[in-house]
C-alpha cells in the first residue's frame, strides 16, 4: 500500500514597510505600505490570490468532489488567516468550501510563523494556542498534528508538540537525518509516543522546484510518469509525503507550465494502481504503525540545500535583529498596550530574518526572488528602525503605568 | 609568438590624478601576466615604477623628432587648462587643450611607424586621436577603452562639443570598444549612437595583494567614540561631494558622534569648504587633501563607512579599494561598480535622506557594519584585474584573427 499524503503550506508575512530613521517616534505603522512595491502586503496578497489561491482552491474543490478518495492537508499560518480576513473574503470562502468536504485537514503551527521555539518557550506555546483558536474560529476545526515553521525540527520540538497534546508532527526527510532509512514510513521521535511524518523531498521537489524546468532531464513531467514513481514505493513504504508551499501552483510554477493540468490528472493516475490511495496527515498517523525511533539532535528544516537554520540565522545581522527582538519580550509582555504586543508578534515572523540572509545573495537565487527588499541590508535597516520605534512606545506606555 | 599591443594612455602611477592611471596600471600588469607584450605610450616623461613593460614617452627626442610637452590631464576642463597653461607661460604646440591632443596624435603616428605591434589600445578621449592615427599608419585593429565619457564628467549639462566629437570619432573608428561597465555601455549606445554589439563590458578590478594591514589612524577620535565617514575622490561635480555634505548634515541631526572626512582635491574644493560652513557643520567635516598609497589605505582602514555618492560613475574603483581595506561602502546606484557589488549599501545619489538613513544605521549597528565588511571584502576580492585581462586578451585575439 502506498498512500499519498499532500500537505501544502499557506503563508504570507506582514512585510515591514520602508521605515527610516526619520520615522522613529513619529507614530507611524509598520506594515501598511501602500506603494506599488513588493512591500505592499495587500498588493502581494491579491496578486498571489489571483494567481494561486483562488484558481488552485477552485481546482481542489472540483477534484475533491470528483474523487471521494482524494485528500489534502493544509497549514495556514495565523498571519495568512489575518490577511485573508483583511484582503480576501473570496479566498476565505474558498478555503471554507474545501473544509466542508470533510476530505481536508488543517495542521497546527505557530500563529506568527515564527522562530519562537528557538527563543522563547512561553511565546511558542502561546502562538500555537492562538493558532488553534484561530483555526477553530474560522473553520470550526481543531488541529491534531503539528508542523513547526519551515519544518524546523529536532527531538525537543517533538517533545514540545507532545506536551501541547498533538499526536503527530512533521519534518523534512533530510538525508543527514535519515541516513539509510526511508522517508516513506512513520517514525517515533526519540523519547515520545508521537508519530513523525517525513517529507519525501525528492518527489516533493520534482513538483515544487523542477516541474517547469526545461533543463531537467525528466521534463516534461506528466501525471502518469509521476504516479509511476510514486507507485515504485509500493512494497517498501507506507506513505509518500508530498509537502510543499501552496504557491507552487500558479505562483512558483506558472499556469503556462501546465502545473494545474498536472495536478488535476494526478489523483486518477495515482488511483490507477489498486494498492494506492490518498491520506490526510492524521489518517496516515492513525493507519500506519511507526517502524522505528528517529533521533534528531540537531535542527533540520526544509530551507535551502543546507536544510538547517542558516536561511534565517547565519549572519550577524540576522542574529542581532532576532536577539534584539526577543530582548524586548519582557517589556512587551509587561506593557498593557495590546497593539504593541501584536506588532511585536508580527515581527517574530521568520520571513523577516529570511530577507536578511546574505548567503548566496549575489548568486541571484531563490533568496533574491523571494526578497521584497532591494537587499538583505535594506531589510535589516527598516527592521532595526522599527525596533527602535517600538522601544520608544514601550517607554511611553511605562510612563503611563 | 606573444601578442604585441601598442597602448596609449596619459597618466600612470605614481603620478596619477585619478582612477584612470590606477586602472591602466592594474590592467597592464595583469596583461603582462597573461604574456601580452605592452608598449605603453605616455605623452610626456613620467617615472613609472614598473618593470613589466616598456614605456615610450612621446616627448623623448630619440623616439620621435620632438617631444610633446603636453599638459594633457584627463580631468581638467578647457577653462582650467588654459589658466594652468598660461601660468607656465610656455608651449610648443599651441594654446589649447585640443591643439595638444592633435599634437599628441601626430607624435603617435610617428611612434606607430617605428614600432611593430598587433593591436592598438587607447584609453579615453585624449588618446583616441593618437589611436586613430596609429591605426591609419599601421592598418592594425584599434580598441578604444572608455573609462569615462563627457556625460559623466559634466553630469550631462554643458557637454563640451569638441570632447564629444573626439569621443564619438574614436568610437566610430575603433574596431571594438571596451566599456568599464554596462552603465557606460548604455551611455555609449544612447548618446554616441554606437551599435550594442560593438561594445564589450570589461569591469575594472583590484588585486588584494596590493593591500595590507597598516598602523591605525585617527585613534584619538575612535577613543572618543567618534565614527568616521569617508569620501575619497576628486572633489568635482561628477563625484557628488555636495551630496556628501548634505548627507553629513542630515546624519549629524541624529548621530552627532559622526565625523566626515573628504580626501581629495578638485575644482569644487573651495565651494565645498564654503558649503560646510554654510550648512553649519564645518567642525565635523575635515578636508585632508589628496591621499595616495599607504596614506589613503590607512584612511580606508580607519573609516567606519566609505561613501561614493557619484552623480555618474562609469566604474568607481574606490569602493573596491575600500572593501579590500576592510571598510564597508555606500555607493550610488548611478555607478558601474554597483553592477559587481551586491554586498554594498546603495542609494540614488540625490536621495540624501536615504543615504543618511543608511549611514546612521551602519554607525549604530555593529552587526550591519561587520556583515557588510566581511561579505563585501569577499565579493571585492573576486573582482580582479586578471579577470579583466582575460577578457581583454580574448578581444585582442578575436581582432587579430579577423585582420
Task: Describe the protein in words.
The complex is a heterodimer of chains A (401) and B (403). Chain A has 401 residues and is α/β, with parallel strands linked by helices. Chain A is 45% helix and 11% strand. The radius of gyration of chain A is 21 Å and the shape is globular. By secondary structure, chain B is α/β, with parallel strands linked by helices. Helix content of chain B is 44%, strand content 15%. Chain B is built from 15 helices and 13 strands. In chain B, helix 9 links the parallel strand 8 and strand 9. The radius of gyration of chain B is 21 Å and the shape is globular. Chain B starts with a strand and ends with a helix. The relative contact order of chain B is 0.12. Mean pLDDT of chain B is 88; it is low at 60-73 and 76-94. Classes of the chains: A alpha/beta (401), B alpha/beta (403). The A-B interface holds A 20-22, 315-317, 319-321, 358, 361-362, 374-375, 377, 380-381, 384-385 and B 254, 342-343, 345-346, 353-354, 356-358, 360-361, 364-368, 370-372, 375, 379.
Features:
A: 401 residues; alpha/beta; three-stranded parallel beta sheet; B: alpha/beta; six-stranded parallel beta sheet; 15 helices; 13 strands
Instruction: Work out the oligomeric state of the chains in this entry.
Output: heterodimer
Spans of chain A of at least 5 consecutive residues whose pLDDT stays below 50 are: none
Give the percentage of residues in beta strands of chain A: 5-15%
Task: Characterize the overall form of chain A.
Answer: globular
User: End-to-end distance of chain A, in Å?
Assistant: 63 Å
Amino acid at each position: 500500500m502506498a498512500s499519498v499524503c499532500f500537505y501544502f503550506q499557506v503563508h504570507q508575512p506582514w512585510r515591514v514597510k520602508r521605515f527610516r530613521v526619520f520615522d522613529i517616534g513619529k507614530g507611524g505603522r509598520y506594515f501598511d505600505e501602500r506603494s506599488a512595491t513588493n512591500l505592499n502586503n495587500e498588493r502581494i496578497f491579491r496578486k498571489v490570490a489571483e494567481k494561486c489561491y483562488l484558481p488552485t482552491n477552485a481546482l481542489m474543490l472540483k477534484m475533491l468532489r470528483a474523487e471521494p478518495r482524494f485528500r489534502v492537508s493544509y497549514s495556514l499560518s495565523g498571519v495568512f488567516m489575518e490577511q485573508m480576513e483583511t484582503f480576501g473574503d473570496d479566498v476565505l470562502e474558498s478555503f471554507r468550501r474545501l473544509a466542508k468536504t470533510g476530505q481536508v485537514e488543517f495542521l497546527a503551527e505557530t500563529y506568527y510563523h515564527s522562530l519562537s521555539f528557538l527563543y522563547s518557550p512561553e511565546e511558542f506555546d502561546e502562538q500555537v494556542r492562538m493558532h488553534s483558536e484561530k483555526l477553530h474560529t474560522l473553520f470550526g476545526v481543531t488541529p491534531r498534528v503539528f508542523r513547526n515553521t519551515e519544518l524546523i525540527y529536532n527531538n525537543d520540538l517533538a517533545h514540545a508538540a507532545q506536551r501541547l497534546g498533538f499526536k503527530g508532527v512533521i519534518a523534512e526527510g533530510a538525508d543527514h537525518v535519515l541516513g539509510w532509512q526511508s522517508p516513506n514510513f512513520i517514525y517515533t521521535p526519540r523519547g515520545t509516543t508521537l508519530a513523525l511524518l517525513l517529507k519525501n523531498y525528492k518527489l516533493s521537489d520534482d513538483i515544487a522546484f523542477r516541474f517547469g524546468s526545461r533543463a531537467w532531464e525528466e521534463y516534461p513531467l506528466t501525471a502518469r510518469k509521476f504516479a509511476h514513481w510514486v507507485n515504485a514505493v509500493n512494497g517498501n513504504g507506507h506513505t509518500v509525503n508530498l509537502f510543499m508551499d501552496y504557491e507552487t501552483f500558479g505562483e512558483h510554477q506558472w499556469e503556462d507550465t501546465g502545473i494545474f493540468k498536472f495536478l488535476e490528472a494526478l489523483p486518477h493516475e495515482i488511483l490507477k494502481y489498486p494498492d494506492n490511495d490518498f491520506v490526510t496527515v492524521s489518517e496516515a498517523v492513525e493507519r500506519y504503525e511507526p517502524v522505528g525511533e528517529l533521533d534528531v539532535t540537531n535542527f533540520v528544516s526544509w530551507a535551502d540545500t543546507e536544510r538547517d537554520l542558516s536561511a534565517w540565522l547565519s549572519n550577524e545581522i540576522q542574529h542581532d535583529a532576532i536577539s534584539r527582538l526577543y530582548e524586548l519580550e519582557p517589556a512587551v509582555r509587561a506593557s498593557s498596550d495590546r497593539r504593541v504586543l501584536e506588532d511585536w508578534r508580527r515581527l517574530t515572523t521568520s520571513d523577516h530574518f529570511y530577507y536578511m540572509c546574505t548567503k548566496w545573495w549575489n548568486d541571484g537565487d531563490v533568496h533574491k526572488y523571494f526578497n521584497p527588499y532591494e537587499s538583505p541590508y535594506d531589510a535589516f535597516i527598516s527592521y532595526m528602525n522599527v525596533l527602535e520605534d517600538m522601544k520608544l512606545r514601550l517607554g511611553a506606555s511605562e510612563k503611563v503605568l | 609568438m606573444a601578442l604585441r599591443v601598442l597602448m596609449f594612455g596619459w597618466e600612470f602611477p605614481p603620478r596619477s590624478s585619478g582612477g584612470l592611471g590606477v586602472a591602466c596600471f592594474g590592467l597592464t600588469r595583469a596583461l603582462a601576466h597573461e604574456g601580452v607584450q605592452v608598449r605603453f605610450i605616455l605623452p610626456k616623461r613620467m617615472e613609472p615604477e614598473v618593470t613589466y613593460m616598456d614605456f615610450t614617452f612621446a616627448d623623448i627626442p630619440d623616439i620621435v623628432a620632438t617631444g610633446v610637452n603636453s599638459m594633457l590631464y584627463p580631468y581638467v576642463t578647457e577653462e582650467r587648462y588654459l589658466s594652468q597653461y598660461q601660468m607656465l607661460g610656455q608651449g610648443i604646440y599651441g594654446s589649447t587643450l585640443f591643439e595638444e591632443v592633435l599634437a599628441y596624435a601626430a607624435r603617435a603616428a610617428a611612434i606607430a611607424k617605428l614600432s611593430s605591434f598587433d593591436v592598438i589600445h587607447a584609453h579615453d578621449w585624449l588618446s583616441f586621436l593618437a589611436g586613430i592615427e596609429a591605426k591609419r599608419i599601421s592598418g592594425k585593429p584599434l580598441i578604444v577603452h572608455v573609462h569615462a565619457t563627457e556625460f559623466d564628467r559634466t553630469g550631462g549639462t554643458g557637454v563640451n562639443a569638441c570632447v564629444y566629437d573626439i569621443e564619438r570619432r574614436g568610437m566610430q573608428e575603433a574596431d571594438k570598444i571596451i566599456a568599464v561597465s554596462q552603465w557606460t555601455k548604455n551611455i555609449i549606445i544612447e548618446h554616441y549612437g554606437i551599435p550594442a554589439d560593438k561594445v564589450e563590458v570589461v569591469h575594472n578590478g583590484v588585486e588584494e595583494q596590493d593591500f595590507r594591514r597598516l598602523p591605525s589612524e585617527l585613534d584619538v577620535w575612535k577613543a572618543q567614540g567618534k565614527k568616521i565617514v569617508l569620501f575619497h575622490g576628486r572633489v568635482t561635480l561628477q563625484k557628488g561631494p555636495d551630496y556628501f555634505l548634505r548627507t553629513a548634515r542630515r546624519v549629524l541631526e541624529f548621530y552627532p558622534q559622526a565625523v566626515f572626512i573628504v580626501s581629495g582635491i578638485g575644482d569644487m574644493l573651495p565651494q565645498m569648504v564654503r558649503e560646510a560652513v554654510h550648512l553649519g557643520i564645518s567642525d565635523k567635516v575635515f578636508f585632508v587633501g589628496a591621499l595616495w598609497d599607504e596614506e589613503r589605505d590607512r584612511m580606508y582602514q580607519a573609516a567606519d563607512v566609505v561613501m561614493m555618492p557619484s552623480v555618474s560613475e562609469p566604474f568607481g574603483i574606490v569602493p573596491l579599494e575600500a572593501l579590500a581595506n576592510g571598510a564597508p561602502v555606500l555607493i550610488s546606484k548611478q555607478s558601474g561598480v554597483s553592477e559587481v557589488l551586491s554586498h554594498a549599501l546603495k542609494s540614488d545619489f540625490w536621495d540624501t535622506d536615504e543615504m543618511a538613513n543608511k549611514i546612521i544605521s551602519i554607525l549604530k549597528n555593529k552587526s550591519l557594519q561587520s556583515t557588510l565588511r566581511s561579505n563585501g571584502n569577499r565579493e571585492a576580492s573576486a573582482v580582479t584585474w586578471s579577470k579583466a585581462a582575460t577578457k581583454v586578451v580574448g578581444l585582442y585575439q578575436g581582432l587579430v584573427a579577423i585582420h
